Amino acid sequence: MLFRRRKPATLWERIRVAIWPRRSFSRSIRYVVARVLRLTATPHAIAAGIAAGVFTSCTPFIGFHFILSFVVAYLIAGNMVAAAIGTSFGNPFTFPFIWAGAYELGTWILGTESVREKPIHLAQMVHDLDLADIWQPILKPMLVGGAPIGLVFAAAFYVLTYWGVNTFRRRRRLRIAARAASGGRQPRAPGRGHAA
């Protein structure tokens, strides 16, 4: 491999980098944005894919977000790569807020009791793998509350991504046209090359 490390990363180092990037979060975010802007698809397909990923990140079906985002992206003619990137909206930093908001909104919409008012033994339910017992008090309110939250965030990300892709492509076209008008040569930076 061309850029392989001399000393392979340990398991602990790979986990740490997955949670906390080696350089910085801003650099990682810039990389993801650049990756999205350079996708070869229509602005609608890219924006719809991102929106599909963001929407499915607001559902409680963790572990199935990729699959669900591909299904939603297919239904709304979105880009699959963009959908996979959009699922990064749900991450260890945002999940607590998404889940808490979805659960509270879901119990309010359904008019059911919160687990704070009627305690449940979640660890025992998970241990017994009794999905029917987990569905009513936890998953159903999170799904009902997560759908409107997901729609709001998906719509916001759709508009932002659509605008960003169009702006990026328009500026790139202008740069290419300016380069073609100047004969394809970049102007030489002052102070380099031969003295005038």
TrEMBL record:
<dbReference type="Pfam" id="PF09835">
    <property type="entry name" value="DUF2062"/>
</dbReference>
<feature type="domain" description="DUF2062">
    <location>
        <begin position="27"/>
        <end position="173"/>
    </location>
</feature>
<keyword id="KW-0812">Transmembrane</keyword>
<feature type="transmembrane region" description="Helical">
    <location>
        <begin position="61"/>
        <end position="86"/>
    </location>
</feature>
<keyword id="KW-0472">Membrane</keyword>
<feature type="transmembrane region" description="Helical">
    <location>
        <begin position="32"/>
        <end position="55"/>
    </location>
</feature>
<keyword id="KW-1133">Transmembrane helix</keyword>
<feature type="transmembrane region" description="Helical">
    <location>
        <begin position="143"/>
        <end position="165"/>
    </location>
</feature>
<feature type="transmembrane region" description="Helical">
    <location>
        <begin position="93"/>
        <end position="111"/>
    </location>
</feature>
<dbReference type="InterPro" id="IPR018639">
    <property type="entry name" value="DUF2062"/>
</dbReference>
<protein>
    <submittedName>
        <fullName>DUF2062 domain-containing protein</fullName>
    </submittedName>
</protein>
